[in-house]
Design a protein that fits this description.
The complex is a heterodimer of chains A (187) and B (180). By secondary structure, chain A is an alpha+beta fold. Chain A has six helices and four strands, in the order E-H-E-H-E-E-H-H-H-H. Chain A has a domain at 112-145. Chain B folds into two domains: 2-146, no CATH class; 148-180, no CATH class. Chain B contains seven helices and no strands. The chains are: A alpha+beta (187), B mainly alpha (180). At the A-B interface, helix 2 and strand 4 of A face loops of B.
């Protein structure tokens, strides 16, 4: 039988940056909060001290702060017609363990923008045209080809959010680089 | 193993030979340690052949895979050149590895090209550029070669100061051992 724990007002699953910020604001207002996190507290380990923290082989290459795939892994297939296989060692998607979340696993780092970042969309549009939108179309095509049943635009349920053809300036839709759209009207 | 690192890193005006740079020692220690035994790697079945994107689905630890690969390379050398790999001269050894890496030379039991691309070559790169405390990159020879200052590379002010310029600390790179 499952063990029953005392009832709490707010339970946050996963103790990363967002959990820390949210629980700080909640507890400041006197609200009872419990944050659940698997793994250890990184604050006292070799990962938090110098010089052992600067060990790229141990922490980055050998994934010293990540989920232990020997104990728990995922299975993967690219379409429903394939047989799933276990992922033996994760490379692209890394799930961390322990308190701190991305703040410790990915070192809370935001890289400086590359010089091409602010001009990427302009270059893309001048090369492929404003209505090319290949990212979304190619992805949909290949998913259909792989046997996935993706509904067309017309058969979408009416509750689904539809992006307007002319997005408001500065909206999330307007910044999304793959979506074909008309440029905002100049005044 | 020693023949391989000396082939991939010959003694020349840039660096001593691979063995003298500690590359063989690094690979040996890694394969004998937790990494070689498959720590952090899902190792149980089912073992079915999958697409390349699924990763290698072999019932072998990195250590076993490495040793099986060395045996397979020697078998290839015996078949094609009549001698084991360590007895080959550099041009012949180069030709054998070009055949393996390009997928021209194969083995019926082992994916030899994957062995080289996904195990032997990454281990070689790690041996060159990991911190010298692990046995490779002896005297930080490869860090000096590429102008990497070691741990001081993370000093925030220096990052801004030497962005796009040579880092003066690269003349004497600092290892984890220098701060311990």
């Amino acid at each position: 039988m499952a063990k029953r724990l005392p009832r709490r007002t707010v339970v946050i699953v996963g103790g990363g940056l967002c959990a820390a910020l949210a629980s700080r604001q909640l507890t400041a207002r006197g609200i009872d909060v419990l944050v659940l996190e698997r793994g250890v507290d990184h604050a006292q380990g070799a990962e938090a001290r110098l010089p052992s923290q600067r060990d790229e082989l141990r922490w980055a290459q050998r994934q010293g702060l990540m989920q232990n795939w020997q104990r728990e892994t995922y299975t993967l297939r690219h379409s429903r017609h394939e047989t799933s296989l276990p992922v033996r060692y994760m490379k692209a998607f890394l799930a961390g363990e322990g308190v701190g979340g991305a703040a410790s696993h990915w070192n809370g780092t935001t890289w400086r923008w590359s010089e091409y970042d602010p001009v990427l969309r302009t270059r893309y549009e001048s090369r492929y045209g404003k209505s090319a939108g290949p990212c979304i179309r190619a992805a949909t095509r290949s998913r259909r080809r792989a046997g996935e049943n993706i509904r067309s635009r017309r058969s979408r349920s009416p509750r689904r959010v539809r992006y307007s053809r002319r997005p408001r300036q500065g909206s999330a839709t307007g910044r999304f680089p793959c979506r074909p759209q008309t440029p905002p009207a100049t005044t | 193993m020693e023949a391989l690192v000396n082939l991939m890193c010959p003694a020349d005006e840039w660096s001593p030979g691979g063995v003298d740079c500690g590359l063989a020692a690094y690979i040996d220690r890694q394969l004998a340690g937790p990494y070689g035994k498959g720590a952090g790697r899902y190792q149980r079945g089912p073992f079915r052949h999958g697409k390349p994107q699924m990763g290698l689905q072999l019932p072998l630890t990195p250590e076993q895979f490495f040793k099986a690969g060395v045996a397979a390379v020697n078998a290839v050398c015996l078949r094609e050149r009549g001698t084991t790999f360590d007895q080959l001269g550099p041009p012949d050894a180069d030709a054998v590895f070009e055949g393996i890496a390009s997928g021209r030379v194969t083995d019926e039991r082992l994916p030899l090209a994957s062995w080289f691309e996904e195990l032997a070559y990454p281990l070689f790169i790690e041996a060159c550029f990991a911190d010298p405390i692990y046995g490779g990159n002896r005297n930080a020879v490869f860090w000096k070669l590429v102008g990497y200052p070691g741990l001081p590379a993370t000093y925030a002010l220096d990052m801004a100061r030497y962005r796009g310029k040579p880092h003066p600390g690269a003349k004497a790179p600092k290892s984890i051992d220098d701060f311990s």
